[in-house]
Design brief:
single chain, 462 residues, alpha+beta, Cytochrome p450, 4-stranded mixed β-sheet, 16 helices, 11 strands, binds protoporphyrin IX containing FE
Length: 462
C-alpha cells in the first residue's frame, strides 16, 4: 500500500472505556462518533439500555444480513428517524415502511434505472463544467475550503437532473445553510428525545430553528415543482428529467399518481439523500488524495489515458477503475451514512440474547468498515483492496446499505463522483493547507466540522 510519511487519515480517537450516560448526553449532542469507545470497533454486538431506550448495535455480518436482507419486514426503519426528518422530508421513501414504502419504491425505481442515469450524464457534466470554470477563475494557485464547493456542485446536479433547473448561488447558499442548521439541531433533538427531556422545555432549544430550516428548503423546492405539477395534471409531460418520471408515475393497483405533497416529500428527500451524502464522500476523497500524492498521480494518469484533453462521456467514466476504487475506499473509511436504525417488531434472539419488541437495532458501516477482524490495516487508505471484490468478506462493506432498502441512487452517485474527481484531477494537483486537520463529526451524515482547507495548483497546460 502507498504510504504517507506525514499523515494518516484522520480517525477520532475512541474513548478507552464506555462513557457514563450523563457524559454521553453532552458529548453525543455534537456527534454520535464522540460516544464510541475502543471496544465498539471490535465487539460483535453491544447494548445501550436506559429508561425508554433499549438499543442493540450489531457488527456481526450474519446478523447484519438477517436484519437488512432476510428479515427486512421484521426489522422496519426506526420511527424516531422518520419523526426527526419529518419537518423536511414529510412521508418520504427514506423513512416509510410496509406497503407505503413498497409503492413509493415501485414508483421511484424507473427514475433510477441505468438507462436514465446515463441519460442524465449530460446534465451532470454541465454542472461539473461550471464548477470547474469557477475553480479556474480563481487563478493558478487556489487556496480554498473545498467542502462548500462539493455541496454546491452536488446540489446543482440534483437540481438539474431531477428538476431541470439550475441552482443559483443565492438559493444554494440559503438551502445549504438551512440544511446545516437542520442537521445540527436534529442531532440535538434526537438526544433530547432519547433522553426524554420534557417537550415543554424544548422552547428553550433550537427546535423552532430546525422546523424553520426544514420549511425554508421545502419552499424553494415547492416554487419549482408547483408550476410543473399543474401542467402535468393537464397534459402528458416530457421525459427530460427525474421529476417528469415522478409526475408520470402511476400506482399499479389504484392507477393514481403522486399528489403534490407526495411529490414534494420525494423531491425533498432526493435532494437531501442525493447531495448531502455525495458532498460528504467527495470532500473526504479530496482530503485523502491530498494525503497520498502517489495515489493522486496514478489516478491522474488513469484519467489522462482514458480521456486525454477530450470530453468526458458516461462510457469513459465507467472505464476509470482506479478512480472508482479510490472513491469506494473513501466510502469505507468515511461512510456518509454512518449508521442505519431499525426497530425490532417481535421477540427474537441474537447471540443468545433476547431482543424485546420495540428495541432499536443499529447497524453501523462506520464500525464494520473499521473492524480489524474484517479489514487489514483498517484505518489505512488503500484503494487497491477493491481490485478483487471477492477478497472482501461478505456483508462487511455496506456504504449504500443492503437488501430491499439499499440506496436507490448508488449508480447515480458513483457516476457523479468519478466525473467530479476526474475533472478536478485532470486540472489540478491537490494539497492540504499547512497545519490543517479535519474534525470528523457524525450527524445525519459524516462531515468535517471545520471544512476541508486545500490548495489546488493548476497542472501545466491546463
Ligand atoms: C455517496 C453517495 C450516497 C451514499 C453513501 C448513500 C447511502 C445510502 C444508504 C446507506 C441508504 C440506506 C439507509 C438505510 O438502509 O437505512 C440510502 C438510501 C437511499 N438513498 Fe442513498 N446514498 C448516496 C447517494 C444517493 C443519491 C445520489 C440518491 C438520489 C439521487 C440517493 C437516494 C436514496 C434513496 C431514495 C434512499 C432510500 C431507499 C429506500 O429506502 O428504499 N442516495 N442511501
Amino acid at each position: 500500500m502507498s504510504s504517507c510519511p506525514f499523515h494518516q487519515p484522520f480517525f477520532p480517537q475512541p474513548l478507552k472505556n464506555k462513557a457514563s450516560l450523563f457524559f454521553t448526553f453532552f458529548k453525543k449532542r455534537r456527534s454520535w462518533l464522540d460516544g464510541l469507545y475502543e471496544r465498539s470497533y471490535t465487539m460483535k454486538m453491544g447494548r445501550v439500555k436506559m429508561p425508554g431506550l433499549d438499543l442493540h448495535v450489531i457488527n456481526q455480518p450474519d446478523l447484519v444480513h438477517r436484519v437488512l436482507v432476510d428479515e427486512v419486514k421484521e426489522f422496519p426503519k426506526n420511527q424516531l428517524l422518520g419523526h426527526l426528518l419529518e419537518p423536511l422530508l414529510g412521508e418520504s421513501i427514506f423513512t416509510t415502511n410496509g406497503e407505503q414504502w413498497k409503492k413509493q419504491r415501485e414508483m421511484l425505481n424507473p427514475s433510477f434505472e441505468m438507462a436514465r442515469i446515463s441519460h442524465v450524464f449530460g446534465l451532470m457534466n454541465d454542472a461539473v463544467k461550471e464548477m470547474s470554470q469557477g475553480l479556474h477563475a480563481n487563478g493558478s494557485v487556489n487556496r480554498l475550503d473545498i467542502d462548500p464547493e462539493m455541496s454546491y456542485v452536488t446540489a446543482d446536479i440534483i437540481f438539474r437532473t431531477i428538476l431541470s433547473s439550475r441552482l443559483d448561488r443565492e438559493d444554494a447558499v440559503s438551502i445549504i445553510e438551512a440544511f446545516s442548521i437542520f442537521q445540527e439541531e436534529t442531532a440535538r433533538t434526537a438526544m433530547r428525545t432519547i433522553f426524554k427531556v420534557p417537550q415543554w422545555l424544548w422552547f428553550l432549544t433550537g427546535e423552532s430553528k430546525r422546523i424553520k430550516a426544514g420549511n425554508e428548503i421545502r419552499d424553494v423546492l415547492s416554487r419549482i415543482i408547483r408550476p410543473r405539477y399543474d401542467i402535468a395534471l393537464a397534459q402528458k409531460g416530457d421525459e427530460r428529467d427525474i421529476l417528469s418520471s415522478l409526475l408520470q408515475a402511476v400506482d399499479s393497483d389504484s392507477g393514481e399518481r403522486f399528489t403534490f405533497e407526495e411529490i414534494l416529500d420525494q423531491v425533498a428527500m432526493l435532494f437531501l439523500a442525493g447531495h448531502e451524502t455525495s458532498a460528504s464522500a467527495l470532500t473526504w476523497t479530496i482530503y485523502l488524495l491530498s494525503l497520498y500524492p502517489d495515489i493522486q498521480e496514478k489516478a491522474y494518469r488513469e484519467v489522462i489515458s482514458i480521456v486525454g484533453d477530450g470530453e468526458f462521456e458516461a462510457s469513459k467514466i465507467k472505464q476509470m477503475r482506479y478512480v472508482t476504487n479510490i472513491f469506494k475506499e473513501t466510502l469505507r473509511l468515511y461512510p456518509p451514512v454512518g449508521f442505519f436504525a431499525r426497530e425490532n417488531t417481535h421477540e427474537t434472539t441474537m447471540r443468545d440474547k433476547t431482543i424485546q419488541p420495540g428495541a432499536s437495532i443499529v447497524v453501523s458501516p462506520w464500525l464494520i468498515h473499521r473492524n480489524p477482524d474484517f479489514w487489514d490495516n483498517p484505518n489505512g487508505f488503500d484503494p487497491d483492496r477493491f481490485n478483487d471484490p471477492k477478497s472482501i468478506e461478505k456483508d462487511t462493506y455496506l456504504p449504500f446499505g443492503m437488501g430491499a432498502r439499499i440506496c436507490i441512487g448508488a449508480s447515480f452517485a458513483l457516476q457523479e463522483a468519478v466525473l467530479i474527481l476526474a475533472t478536478i484531477l485532470r486540472d489540478y494537483k491537490i494539497q492540504l493547507q499547512e497545519d490543517f486537520s479535519p474534525d470528523v463529526v457524525g450527524r445525519l451524515t459524516v462531515r468535517s466540522a471545520n471544512g476541508m482547507l486545500i490548495i489546488l495548483t493548476k497542472r501545466e497546460g491546463r
